[in-house]
Each structure stands twice: as C-alpha cells, then as structure tokens.
Amino acid sequence: MFSRRFFAYAAVGAVGTLTQYLVLIVVVHTGAATPAVGSMAGAVLGAVINYWLNHRVTFRATSSHLTTLPKFAAIACLGVLVNGLVMKVLAENHHVNYLLAQMVASGLVLILTYLINSVWTFRPQQTRTGARL
To answer: Theoretical Cys-Cys bridge with 58: which of 8, 37, 122, 124, CB 3.0 to 4.6 Å?
Structure first.
C-alpha cells in the first residue's frame, strides 16, 4: 500500500502542509478566524502548491492540465472539507489543541487524497490497445 510514490507524495505534500500550518498559526494567533476556518484557508493555498509539485515530481504526469487539474481540484476540495470537519470536531467541539487536531486531520487527508489521486487523478491513461499514454 505504501510505496515509494506515497513517500514522494508525502514529501511533496509537506511543502503545502507547511504553508497550511503557517496560515493556521497566523490566523489563530491574530484571532482572525477559528482553527477550522484558518486550517481550511491554509489547505486551499497548500493544495495549489501541491498540485504543481505532484504533477511534475510525484506522478510525473504527462496528461494535460485540462485533464488532471479539475480532478485534483475536486479531490483537494474533498480534502479541505474533511480537514475542516476534523478541525471543527476536535479543536472546536472537543477543545483539543488546534495543532494536535491539525496533525490528526493532516494524516487522514494525506491518506485519503493519496489513494484517490493515485487511482483517478494521475492514473496514466491507456489507449484502446492497452498502451499507457
């Protein structure tokens, strides 16, 4: 289940995750928003960074951005929603420290989005003869 590609996905994702955590910390410490909202805002920015890195580095996709970007965006939206829900439940409803709650959310979203992106977003397309494009 956990291949070299998963570890590349996680390493690339660390760049977007770092961005997400920075936004989260700034938003919470300034009182600009709740942990769930700050985390979701950071996740959106992180997803933009992660798309470009995953397309080029992790999956070395040869498919068009017109094909992969909408799929990635859909999965990123799912990830943002799952992330926000976990943050709402843990940090806001159960008063778990927001950074600890974010670590739990990050782990869940990492596995979920990797699995879906691997089999759908960046899956090599096959021709009618079975050759991969």
So the answer is: 8
pTM (predicted TM-score): 0.86
Task: Say if 130 falls within a structural domain.
Answer: no
- 56, 108, 121, 70: CA torsion to nearest 10: -90
Q: Is residue 128 part of a domain?
A: no
Tell me: the pLDDT tens digits for 23-40?
999 999 999 999 999 999
* Bridge partners, residue 126, by sequence: 132
* Assigned domain for 20 exists: yes
Report yes or no on 66 lying in a domain.
yes
Residue 43 belongs to what domain range? 4-121
Number of domains in the chain: 1
Q: 39-60, pLDDT tens digit by residue?
A: 999 999 999 999 999 998 888 8
- 61: helix, coil or strand? coil
Q: 93 CB contacts (<8 Å, ≥6 apart)?
A: none
Which two three-digit tokens encode residue 96?
Answer: 């778990």
